[in-house]
Amino acid sequence: MDEFDRQAARCVFVGIQGTTPTSAELDLVRRGVGGVILFKRNIEDPAQVAELSRTLKAAAPGPLLICVDQEGGRVQRLRPPHWTAWPSMRRIGDIDRHGGIDGLNGTAVAEKVGELMARELSACGIDLDFAPVLDVDTNPANPVIGDRSFSRDPRRVARLGVALAQALERGGVASCGKHYPGHGDTSQDSHVTLPRLAFDTVRLWEVELVPFVAAARAGIASVMTAHIRFEAFDQLPATLSPVTLGMLRKSTSTIPSTPSPGALAPDRCRGGAWRSRARASRPCRSSRARRAPSIPARRRRPATPRSTGVSRPR
Predict the structure, then answer these.
(1) What is the pTM of this model?
(2) First-residue to last-residue Cα distance in the chain
(3) Sheet holding 128-129, edge to edge
(4) Going by C-beta distance under 8 Å and a sequence separation of 6 or more, which residues neighbour residue 103?
(5) Which residue has the higher pLDDT, 46 or 254?
(6) In order of start, what are the domains of the chain with their CATH numbers?
(7) pLDDT for 286
(8) How many helices (H) and strands (E) are present in the chain, helices listed first?
(9) What is the maximum span of the chain, computed from C-alpha positions, in angstroms?
């Protein structure tokens, strides 16, 4: 492999088919992919997942991230009886809205969930959790987000999402806020088709972008982009839009002593939204890639908690 191929491989996260890797899948890992994403089909019990993680990392020529979607609620790959049944993000938001529970306010509950979740994930060799969801739950008809979101209030989503993300990272598991710049008000599933949002920029900065700007300013490890067209910015899906992707860095560039945003990882590239765009632009040619091309998340020192009040950068 030449240097271009090595660098390209680092930008690809792949999935495997079963609970143990095939020889062909190990060969793919040896080519230097950035990470392997685990799904339900790959998971039996803690010992098996830990052994799978060890086997994959042993085959890799360099650092390899083992990743999973462990949000809580209806999206968690590691489930009882071997792992904890985590509450949905909406449940944590409701606890916060009602003043807390058992002497803990909502922020403390989010931190505790992140801490304990990291303990279970790291024990299995998992390095990156595609959580928390930072979408604002503003559309009751949304077929994808719903109770995966903390709240209809963007500042509550920002505060609780940052708290959970930072707790994950203190526990040694990188976080990934999703789905930038906001999937909460769509009425379509971006895994099936290409949703479009026609809100003006004022609305987007006041609602959808608030949690993501807060996450960027807090320096969380990574953010996942959505295959959604935000027509106020341009006609490209957010994942392919330089304008949209550049806004997170712009949101922190004018604030002294603020950590630069972490890595960007697109949602899976096999959905209908991606295929409809890929026919024209061919941005990703790997049929094996589940969320590729992606940039491996950097491990970051936990950031000092910051205010999640967000204003549009000038």
Answers:
(1) 0.83
(2) 44
(3) 13-15, 35-38, 65-68, 128-129, 174-180, 222-225, 263-266
(4) none
(5) 46
(6) 68-281 (3.20.20.300)
(7) 34
(8) 10, 11
(9) 57
